[in-house]
Amino acid sequence: MKVSILSMQRVVNYGSFLQAYALKKVLESKQNSVSFVDILPGKKLEAIESSNRKKRYMSLLKRDIRQILGQRKQKKKFSKVYNEFAKKYLKLSDEKIFDIKSDISIIGSDEVFNCACPSPWGFTTQLFGENITANKIVTYAASCGSTKIEDINRFNLQEDIKNALKNVNEISVRDENTYNVISALTNKTIANVLDPTFLYNYEEEINNIKVSEENFIILYAYPARFLDKREVDAVKNFAREKNKKIIAIGFYQYWCDKNLILNPFEFLAYIKKADYIITDTFHGTVFSIKYNKNFCTFVRESNKNKLDDLLNKFNLQSRKIEDVNNMKKVLNTQIDYNNVNKIIQAKKDQSIEFLENAMQGVKE
What we know:
Elements: E1 2-6, H1 14-28, E2 33-37, H2 46-62, H3 65-89, E3 102-107, E4 134-139, H4 149-154, H5 158-165, E5 171-173, H6 176-185, E6 190-192, H7 203-206, E7 216-220, H8 229-242, E8 245-249, E9 258-260, H9 264-273, E10 276-279, H10 282-290, E11 295-298, H11 304-313, E12 320-321, H12 327-331, H13 337-359
Parallel strand pairs: 1-2, 1-3, 3-4, 5-6, 7-8, 7-10, 8-9, 10-11, 11-12
């Protein structure tokens, strides 16, 4: 069967690549031919763009010049590594492809429904099911990210989204907020499934990767969000107490002992070997859970929807950091992964069942 995936595979981010790659591999394991479709540009919502410019300006005012210059330099190198890797493993071409005639088109995973936030493509109804040439359209583990139904109403996007969703045959989302948003816009049945990174084991890709580092903590956090001196000091103090190095991966943090630019599979190998993970990202938390690591997650207002839901799914609310004074206590508390792994397996089975059912009855 010919399958097209409409996702965020060109976004330079480990999570973006690894979720797209995982879904591709799972589908290919069922003897499907898989290719990726790019996001068709839509309209810019000026209020969102203006708000974003202000936020970027304010964050620059707060950041140390070392952070700004270091991040610019690292971002360029990371983009090169990422794009070469995406071409090789996702088979992306230099020229963007906005539609492919396919038997089934899958929208997702990642924040494909996060329409009330700044993006290079703006608001596009393609991500909700329009302008797609396929015999069947489904969504898999789609997320609204920080977008709530109030945001969609404020920007008067309800009717456009409702009409686009009429083209979608089956819907699945990955968090409660997205479930609530889409429920308000359609009366279709909605499944709640796992991010595709939980469905694939990556063992073949990372087994032969050697990690030379020892005794280290991984900090995987967005640089513009990790600005509070109290958070920085707490991480450094904890590392000194445990006699560990702090290694920042992907996103530059000038105050860490090392900043590494790794390819996505090397990233996973480092996650698996780390003694502790400190993150404020969705996929940093996902891979900490997947590989049974001792971790904590800083929850911000911008990612509260998805991170609260993710931690709740696995009864790991105790790993959430909203007050930095609790970080040491959290990291000194071991996680009982026996129960967590049972939850992962049960939800993984349900998620694969959704995909298999969605693939049935498709005209080739």
